[in-house]
Amino acid sequence: MSTALGVFDATYSILRVAFLVLAIIFGILCVVDWLVRTRRVNPMGSLGRFARRSIDPILAPIERRVVRAGALPTNAPIYALVAIVLAGIVVLSLFGFLRAQLFALSLSAGAGGRGMLLLVIRWTIGLLQIALLVRVVSSWVRISPYARWVRWSYALTEWLLAPLRRIIPPLGMIDITPIVAFFVIQLLGGALVRII
Q1: Most CB contacts within 10 A, which of 25, 110, 149, 178?
Q2: How far is it, in rounded angstroms, from Cα 162 to Cα 177?
Q3: 3-class DSSP state for residue 171?
Q4: Are residues 89 and 20 in contact, defined by beta-carbon separation less than 8 angstroms?
Q5: Rg (CA), the chain
Q6: Contact in structure between 132 and 153 (CB atoms under 8 Å)
Q7: How many CB atoms lie within 10 A of CB 36?
Q8: What phi and psi, each to the nearest 5 degrees, are found at residue 171?
Q9: What angle do CA 123, 124, 128 make, to 5 degrees?
Q10: How far apart (Å, rounded) are the C-alpha atoms in residues 95 and 89?
């Protein structure tokens, strides 16, 4: 198990440096392309020709999405840079999360059956809390509950939220039942861990 943790740590270090270098390079390219697109640099000069020949084909798919969303095509480099930075943060966070879960698994396996049961309880609590968070965020950005990205969160949490909605009235336009459910799950999980 320690070799797997060592591999995770080495991979995490490599990914951190790779994403940092990629973000810096892409940031420079995006700034150059943005300067050319906004006419702060002569588009017919050598830097402008380089940007149109080398950078624009890379940004073309992002530019199409930006235009379809109603934004200006000159903002495509900024959106591309934000996408790269967010992708790096998500990948590194997922790697850190997986490493923490692998470490918890190794500790629980060493504790026997009781340790594994505690691990399953903690993982279940974590999954339910993530599902609640996904459900809340998807309601803020108005994603359909039937969309494949969020359907699982509704399936995992509706059993708890439906009874809470019958008991707790909304505060104006705000439904506070996900907050209450989050704390109920936390309390139930803590009680189960103490009992076991």
Answers
A1: 178
A2: 9
A3: strand
A4: no
A5: 23
A6: yes
A7: 24
A8: -95, 95
A9: 115
A10: 10
